[in-house]
Specification:
By secondary structure, the chain is an alpha/beta fold. It has seven helices and nine strands; from the N terminus they run βββααβααβαββββαα. The protein has three domains: 44 residues, no CATH class; 111 residues, Uridine Diphospho-n-acetylenolpyruvylglucosamine Reductase, domain 2, CATH 3.30.43.10; 50 residues, no CATH class. It has a four-stranded mixed beta sheet, with helices on one face. Strands 1-2-3 form a three-stranded antiparallel beta sheet, with no helix packed on it. Strands 8-9 form a two-stranded antiparallel sheet. Strand 1 and strand 2 form a beta hairpin. The longest helix has 13 residues. It is flat. The chain starts with 16 loop residues before the first strand and ends in a 9-residue tail after the last helix. The mean pLDDT is 92.
């Protein structure tokens, strides 16, 4: 699911709210029209017309050149697979910001002042331990990353010249164990909300945590931000 997230907006890749031939906002996946949305926005903002502000094309976005740290890269390549390490342009772009209005505005304008140099996808607790140890030994900045739904700049890189690594946790998404007697479960931190609830549903239970970002955010992000969400219980 996480591979389908837009690079420059909220939600699923290829799904958008657009203006149809009737001049109404509509949802491109469901086809549902929102005929009152534009009049409402004009009234609230006191505007006669709303300016069309399309996003720049992803291929036109300029990223800073990636920094190098050969000793760190040699270290992590000794225990990670090639699929766990990326310096690809699109991966770097998708890990620049979170999902605040400021973040999404800059992405849609193609304003990228800083970007992580490497994206690493750990698959296990042991991977994380070894990555952290290598980063400490080779003076590398690590930024833990989940669904990137945060709105406080928590994943935005700031470098003092050191290599910046975005540590993307979303491949660590398994339920490790469930105990019906104590009603407790252990999940890896990269599990998305829908996948977590689906795993619990097989055991006949539910977590009941329902933040607005539920579909795209991870358990690790909920814990890191002391997420309150909405209780279903």
């Amino acid at each position: 699911m996480w591979e389908r997230v837009k690079w420059n907006g909220w939600g699923e890749k290829g799904v958008e709210y657009a203006i149809n031939s009737s001049g109404h906002v509509w949802h491109s996946k469901s086809g549902v029209e929102l005929p009152k949305l534009i009049p409402f926005c004009k009234d609230i903002l006191k505007l006669d017309e709303l300016e069309d502000t399309p996003s720049v094309d992803v291929d036109s976005v300029q990223l800073p050149d990636g920094r190098k740290n050969d000793s760190f890269m040699t270290a992590v390549r000794s225990f990670l697979t090639p699929r766990q390490i990326s310096t690809e342009r699109l991966d770097r772009l998708c890990h620049c910001y979170g999902s605040s209005l400021r973040d999404l505005w800059r992405l849609r304008k193609g304003i990228i002042s800083e970007a992580p140099d490497v994206i690493i996808y750990p698959h296990s607790h042991e991977d994380v331990e070894r990555i952290v140890a290598a980063a400490n030994s080779h003076n590398v900045i690590l930024i833990p990353c989940g669904g990137r739904t945060n709105i406080v700049g928590a994943v935005e890189p700031e470098s003092d010249g050191r290599l910046i690594v975005s540590l993307d946790m979303r491949r660590m998404n398994r339920m490790l164990w469930f105990d019906k007697k104590s009603m407790t479960a252990c999940f890896e931190v990269g599990v998305l909300g829908p996948d977590l609830e689906a795993a619990l549903a097989k055991e006949g239970v539910a977590l009941g945590h329902d933040p607005d970002s539920f579909q795209w955010s991870t358990l690790g992000g909920w814990l890191a931000t002391c997420s309150s969400g909405n209780s279903l219980l």
